[in-house]
Amino acid sequence: MKKWITFALAFCMLLSLLGIQTPVQAAGFVDVPSRALNEVNYLVQGGVVQGSSPTTFNPYQTITRAEAATFVGRAIQLDGTKRQTRFNDVNPGSFAAGYIESIAAKGIMSGDSSGKFSPEKLVTRGEMAIIIAKAFGYTGNAETALMNLGIASGMSNGSFGSSQTITRADFAVFLSRAINPDFRLKQSVTFSSKLKSTANNLNIRTGPSTAYPSIGKIPAGTSVTGAFSVGGWMFVKTGSVTGFISTYYLSGSTGSGTVTEPATPPASPAPPAAEIDSRIPTQTIILDPGHGGTDPGAVNGSLREKDIVLNVGLKVNKLFEQTPFKVKMTRSTDTFIKLADRSAFAKNNKGNVFVSIHVNSSTNSSANGTETFYYAAGNPYVTDSKLLSSKIQARMLEAWGLKDRGIKNGNLSVLRENNMPAALAELGFISNAGDSAKMKNEAALSKISVAIYNGILDYYKAKGYDITALYR
Ligand SMILES: [Zn+2]
User: Which of 30, 70, 274, 406 is 20 to 30 A removed from 179 (C-alpha atoms)?
Assistant: First the structure.
């Protein structure tokens, strides 16, 4: 038994001791033969196949083309939305309509010359081999490819049994082996793509969707080697662990070496992968480095507010650019922008969060510390503005360790004239020796940028978003 299966089972036993239901337990089929049980449970866990009841799977029932399209479509994460298809014999309201259209669009299954898909026609072992080979990108003869990869074995008489119909249990076994090499009859993958993780606490899962349990977490910048992808997920190895990681959080090029199986292009071209909260890509963060151009802001010798806050703003922007959040800057160069144009920019870009970045100054050089402003009237998002301010303030204090001047109500144009949760961060006092030492230090500026970034994530977390994987 493979390592992760042992782990998953031990984990499930622990959960069952705690009285917690798991998807693995839920698939308590009494009619599945033991030779196919792990594979069927694996696909049920991933939502690829379902039982006919909580305790029965109907393992010996033959598979129709509509079912095959659905199972494979789910496995490689195609769009299953029921809709009109290119075929004249598929009811747009049928359970399989979406997957049939998606799978035809990818050239994995096709219809006949009269425009029929024949959804009720039974699938043979030979047809199954071709469907799986096309879906997972295997080249050459499909039956040979499946046998070489340890996905299928021949019949006892040495043939593939191409013309025989295939049962639900057997289809599940072949499909789970195609998805996860741990089920295969032999070791047949090469980890040849050199990649790096781009998010912290990134889950390695037993299968290619968030429905599968996590078997480990890795920090950003971890080296992993990839073997092949299934939809938007890649089968990787890091240390002694193998499993699936959302390709959205992997960067790097394919290294030299033989790729045993060509990677299938991601099913959904645009992020997000299922690993992240699907609401995040709808969120736009507006970053507003204060002053600029002819307006230097506060100055202390050669140290100018406009340079410090632009530097920090660009760093925060870069952090958000590596996430599914949208991010816009009111200025990304040394240019003067009128206050009214800053809030107008935020509104025009339909911002969901506005963060202005400044540094303080005082004629009293002993004045020091970090503070964040919100506006308690005018802007309709007072509570959220206050929340956003408190989260950014807490992170900035943690990063620089300066005096806590708190969050304050401030009648400031960019906060008042805005129509989204808005905060204005004053990193510290440029006029104070201790505070300004931080502003001259590139490492400290990176640290406060991460703090602002994490503070904005904290705000989203408090609003119920799952942003854990994005923390720096
Ligand atoms: Zn300022």
Answer: 30
Q: In the structure encoding, which two tokens stand for residue 48, read together?
A: 């690829």
Q: How large is the C-alpha radius of gyration of the chain? A: 28
Give the residue from 170, 213, 215, 219 showing the smallest Cα distance to 197. Answer: 219
Q: How far is the CA of 312 from the centre of ligand 1 (A)?
A: 13
Cα of 356 vs centre of ligand 1, distance in Å, is 9
CA of 423 to the centre of ligand 1 (A): 13
| Residue-level pLDDT at 275 | 60
What pLDDT sits at residue 159?
81
Q: Provide the terminal-to-terminal Cα distance of the chain, rounded to the nearest Å.
A: 36
Q: Delineate the domains of the chain, giving CATH numbers in brackets.
A: 3-183 (no CATH), 189-274 (2.30.30.40), 280-470 (3.40.630.40)
Q: In the chain, pLDDT over 90 holds for what percent of residues?
A: 65
Q: Model confidence at 187, in pLDDT bands (50, 70, 90)?
A: confident
Distance in angstroms (rounded) separating the CA atoms of residues 184 and 238 = 20
Residue ranges with CB less than 5 Å from ion ligand 1: 290, 297, 358
Cα 295 to middle of ligand 1, angstroms = 10
- Is it the case that residue 88 has pLDDT exceeding 80? yes
What would the two tokens of residue 191 be? Answer: 């980890």
Asked whether the CA dihedral 374, 440, 454, 344 is positive or negative, the reply is positive
Q: What are the angstrom distances between the C-alpha of 322 and each of 244, 315, 446, 469? A: 20, 11, 16, 12
Which pLDDT score, from 0 to 100, does residue 8 have?
46
Q: What's the 393 CA to ligand 1 centre distance in angstroms?
A: 16
How many angstroms separate the alpha carbon of residue 338 from the centre of ligand 1?
Answer: 13
- pTM here is 0.54
- Model pLDDT for residues 211-261, shown as the tens digit of each residue: 888 898 898 889 999 999 898 889 999 998 999 998 888 887 543 322 223
What integer is the mean pLDDT of 102-126?
Answer: 94
* Residue 247 DSSP one-character state: G
Two tokens at 37?
A: 């049980």
- Gap from CA of 228 to ligand 1 centroid (Å): 50
